[in-house]
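Notes from hallway chat w/ T.B., transcribed later so I don't forget. T.B. wanted the structure written out for a chain they're using in a teaching module, and asked if we could keep both sequence and structure tokens in one place. Agreed to drop them here.
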Amino acid sequence: MRETIKKLMPEFMITLYKKARYLGISALFYVARLLPVNPRLVVLCSVWGYGDNTRYVAEELLKREPGVCQPVFVTNHPKQVPEGTSMKVYRSNSVHAVLALARAGVWVDCNRKESYIHKRKGQYYIQLWHGGIALKKIEGDCEAALGAEYIRRARRDSAATDLFVSNSTFCTEMYRRAFWATCEIAEYGSPRNDQLMLQASEKQDAGDAPEHRNKIVVYAPTYRTGHTDYADFDAGLLRAALAQRFGGEWDIYVRLHPLVAANRNFAEMPGVIDISAERDLYEYLYRADVLITDYSNTMFEFAVTGKPVFLYAQDVQQYAEERGMYFDFEALPFPKAASCRELAGEIRTYRADDYEAGKRAFYESVGYKESGHAAALVADRIEEHVKKACNFPR
């Protein structure tokens, strides 16, 4: 209903509404800061929905001893949280969410916080971020592309952070530089990758899908600021190539970035299941047999399972000029294609031994530190802080 009303309102009224709402939220937050901090209250935020690293830390906390932590989840899409959960869930910027943030003893986030949110004495802030090893440059390494206002907010957010969680030596160095991080950085791994690490230990392969289901390829291109032409995407061609190389019947799941998903419609394309409205991509990556992406950091995460990753990128030079890249795209250890026909050819000629050797060398070069227990390690740190703040007996 709210979105329908917005579409009917003149632009100047929408602008006035947003300013008034922001002022109201800011005032509420500062009034709420007069209330005492509740050291057991843990607010976990994921702006895009119930997913990403904070989801898996929240679920780990729910398994722990009751009475130590009081986890609350804050998101733009609270209806995505499974029914029956014992955790309170609030919509971002709602009265309940603002009050919780103002009073929480611990904040856990994977995005930058809103500009009205200021940390107070007695609050502990853990930043998990929403990506590990990155191809495209981020934050302080591409300031001109992000704008002065975002950089100002990002710097303030990093200054308030008590603990960054990294999954590699590469990320630790990147956080020190691009996030201006001066706090502790713990190389625990990424909580959302724990299940992928479990698959790696079980040595699953693209040909190991259970007999009772079709195999799954996930196509997850990254965010674009301009127009991207998906007309070249040929689901039938790709399914035929996958069946020829890996056997079986294949379903293609397409997941576009939330910021562009509304402008693209794969649902009308034969043989494609559009999961762009689903906020947690990792639920699908855990089930996938193959990943196709372009510049997303999911390439580095999914590849740890040993299953194939293919890069389908039509605009490498343009993208590199706009954002910059940390690695030479052509040197990445994944088969690459600039067209769907080339991609089908790379799938048919995929060589598992070459892929594995190149991937292993890459992980060694970046000091990969995924533990498979990242969610538990972060939950341990939260409980440790809460117990200390509450003077729990040792």
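Follow-up for T.B.: Residues 11-32 form the longest helix (22 residues). Might be a good example for the class.
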